[in-house]
Amino acid sequence: FPTDTVYGIGASLRHPAALARIYDIKGRPPDKPIPILVSRADVIPDLVEDADPDLVALAHRYWPGPLTVILRAKASLPAEVQAPDGTCGIRIPNHSVPLAIAQANGGAIATTSANKSGEPAATQASAIRESLGDELDLILDGGIAPGSVASTVIRREGDTISVIREGSVSAEQLRDAWASIVRGGIVQ
């Protein structure tokens, strides 16, 4: 399905077999967790422990939109969405399709780019049909995804934030926003 960045492949957090299937379809390394898209901010406390208020404030400057934040996951979340350090990636997309899918699944859905691991992310349904089509139950063709770059991924490290993956939101934009939230914060 289309998102505000690229096309995604997703599964309900309530269906472990579907989550495991994403790894099989993509050839995704088992130690690489699947990020979570949420339909609205009030779902986040159900997914994470003690969300960092400064990091959440920063995220809200770009949400809905292409910024994924790494937060401490609740132990009850499926292993497929948790990193070895007990964290998970959370994002509120700016696109009606993933928002509706997440809402229909209790407010959250595990979603990663719809492509084989290591290959470029798909921005059109036709590219997904060519690479993954026979393995998927359904492809929602929403035309060309409005973004062409994956989301930026950040985490807090002490008084600073680190950009894990630079995407649609630049490190410079984050640096400026972080500095206005936390005095002396720097992006590494």
Salient structural properties:
188 residues; globular; single chain; alpha/beta; 7-stranded mixed beta sheet; 7 strands
Strand content: 15-25%
- The arrangement of helices and strands along the chain is EHEHEEHEHEEH
Report the end-to-end length measured between terminal Cα atoms: 33 Å
**How would you sum up the major sheet?**
7 strands, mixed
Characterization of this structure:
The mean pLDDT is 93. Strands 1-5-2-4-3-6-7 form a 7-stranded mixed β-sheet, sandwiched between helices. The radius of gyration is 16 Å and the shape is globular. The protein is of the alpha/beta class. It has 5 helices and 7 strands, in the order E-H-E-H-E-E-H-E-H-E-E-H. Helix 2 (53-60) packs across helix 5 (171-181). The longest helix is centred in the first third of the chain and has 11 residues, at 16-26.
Topology summary:
Elements: E1 8-12, H1 16-26, E2 36-38, H2 53-60, E3 67-72, E4 87-91, H3 96-104, E5 108-113, H4 125-131, E6 152-157, E7 160-165, H5 171-181
Parallel strand pairs: 2-4, 3-6
Antiparallel strand pairs: 1-5, 2-5, 3-4, 6-7
Helix pairs in contact: 2-5
Summarize the structure.
The chain has 188 residues and is an alpha/beta fold. The chain has helices at residues 16-26, 53-60, 96-104, 125-131, 171-181; strands at residues 8-12, 36-38, 67-72, 87-91, 108-113, 152-157, 160-165.
